[in-house]
Design brief:
Layout: H1 17-33, E1 38-39, E2 45-47, H2 48-55, H3 60-65, E3 67-70, E4 76-79, H4 84-94, H5 96-99, E5 103-112, E6 124-133, H6 138-155, E7 161-166, H7 173-185, H8 194-202, H9 204-207, H10 213-219, H11 231-246, E8 252-253, E9 265-272, E10 281-287, H12 291-294, E11 302-308, H13 309-314, E12 326-330, H14 336-347, E13 353-355, H15 362-372, E14 376-380, H16 382-387, E15 389-394, E16 400-404, H17 408-412
Parallel strand pairs: 1-5, 7-8, 12-13, 12-14
Antiparallel strand pairs: 2-4, 3-4, 5-6, 6-11, 7-9, 9-10, 10-11, 14-15, 15-16
Helix pairs in contact: 1-6, 2-4, 6-11
The chain binds histidyl-adenosine monophosphate.
Length: about 425
């Protein structure tokens, strides 16, 4: 019978990939904790309605990319395409938004989007996601951005561009929408791609960041959002930028940056790398003040971002594996159980290493010890078994000495 293979766009991760992912997660935990972020884990499966209401029915994610199916009772379920909507749902259900002034939460895990797989684009991918709920201050946006850029620097990622924009608020965006719609109405539709012709009616902002050459050329003269911002949005954006500048964090204002999810207002941003091909956005996010209320919660503002771990990974160099402390080479099968106990004793001293499960010749065991990178090989042969000793071989110098079994702990401390 043919074997079962993994699904297209989904990946298995053996070391060193899994180690790179752990490194990213551990670095995130350390950097985010310094700003007061705590970890939240939410389910990967949610009612479809959450994403339709949260992300917006006119987005590509909701229209084309969700893994949606009916469960045994016929209820529509969706594998989360992003973390934000689930985090909002969890916080509303928990009631913490009413109890706490500001909630800072991060989430790490797999997301699912049925896109065409290519370099940097998977159907199951992983995000490190942060949300700061409860403040509409530009200080919250700026702190989040400073934290994101510090996180990337700590990973060793520096050749990237932070792009910023402000999408305005419900007071000033309708004016811009109108100006944009008037501009779009004057264009030759034949020059636009099919998606943009549809978006002109349903989601005109999204036309702005279409990557098709024809659309780009036609939109070169489109009105920019910045000129329609109200005074409050203008000041909010200026404050975010001021803090970034004072903290020496470079950024570029990109008036075309509108993002693919509908919940954003005011600050939006992406971090772009030119080193990883066409899918160069390694992180994206922004402010989403109406989202919690739209999902049935209190009127609580928020700002957040998510990094794509597969894309971060492409910018990281492979980690140098740390060396185990020991390897127990067992030459006779009657020594195998002792090998397990010796390794157990050493692990109790916080040392790392393995023991053989099969007795083999000294030559083959030493070759294996070498392969594991162990610093010391503990040799347990027939003679040692008989007289209660062990041989310790320094794998770098080749020097070896015999010790009594009761000297084992002392030899390693
Ligand atoms: P997003 O821009 O859709 O935002 O995704 C964030 C990041 O996830 C992207 O910049 C990219 O690095 C990665 N990503 C997205 N799709 C894929 C894919 N198919 N394969 C690999 N990586 C991918 C959000 O998801 C928002 N929820 C971010 C946010 C949090 N906004 C506020 N809070």
């Amino acid at each position: 019978m043919a074997g079962v293979t993994r699904i297209k766009g989904f990946a298995d991760m053996f070391p060193p990939r899994s180690e790179v992912f752990s490194f990213m997660e551990n670095t995130a935990r350390r950097i985010f904790a310094a700003c007061g972020y705590e970890e939240l884990r939410t389910p990967v499966l949610e009612p479809t309605e959450l994403f339709r209401r949260g992300i917006g029915t006119e987005t590509d994610v909701v229209q084309k990319e969700m893994y949606t199916f009916a469960d045994q009772k016929g209820r529509s379920m969706t594998l989360r395409p992003e973390a934000t909507a689930g985090v909002m749902r969890a916080c509303i259900e928990d009631g913490r938004l009413a109890r706490e002034g500001v909630s800072k939460l991060f989430t790490v895990g797999p997301m699912f989007r049925h896109e065409r797989p290519q370099m940097g684009r998977m159907r199951q991918f992983h995000q490190i996601n942060c949300e700061c709920l409860g403040s509409d201050s530009p200080c919250a946006d700026a702190e989040l951005l400073l934290m994101l850029m510090r996180f990337l620097r700590e990973l060793g990622i520096s050749a990237v561009t932070l792009e910023l924009n402000s999408l305005g608020c419900p007071a000033c965006r309708p004016g811009y929408h109108q100006a944009l719609k008037t501009f779009l109405a004057g264009l030759d539709r034949a020059g636009l791609c099919a998606d943009c012709v549809r978006r002109m009616e349903t989601n005109p902002l999204r036309v702005l960041d279409c990557k098709a050459d024809g659309c780009r050329a036609l939109l070169a003269e489109a009105p920019v959002l910045e000129s329609s911002l109200c005074g409050a949005c203008r000041e909010h954006f200026a404050a975010v930028r001021r803090i970034l500048e004072k903290a020496d964090v470079p950024y570029r204002v990109n008036p075309r940056l509108v993002r693919g999810l509908d919940y954003y207002m005011r600050t939006t941003f992406e971090v772009i790398s030119t080193a990883i091909g066409s899918q160069g956005a390694i992180a994206g996010g922004g402010r989403y003040d109406g989202l919690v209320q739209a999902l049935g919660g209190p009127d609580v503002p928020g700002v957040g971002f998510a990094c794509g771990m597969e894309r971060l990974e492409m910018l990281l160099s492979a980690p140098t594996p740390s060396r185990p402390d020991f390897y127990v080479a067992v030459l006779e099968s009657q020594g195998l159980e002792d090998g397990v106990l010796i390794a157990h004793t050493l692990r109790g001293l916080n040392l790392r290493g393995e023991t053989a499960f099969t007795a083999k010749s000294a030559k083959s065991q030493l070759r294996h010890a070498q392969k594991t990178g162990a610093r010391t090989c503990i040799i347990l042969g027939g003679e040692e078994l008989q007289n209660g000793t062990l041989i310790l071989k320094d794998m770098d110098s080749g020097a070896q000495r015999a010790i009594r079994r009761d000297e084992l702990k002392g030899a390693f401390s």
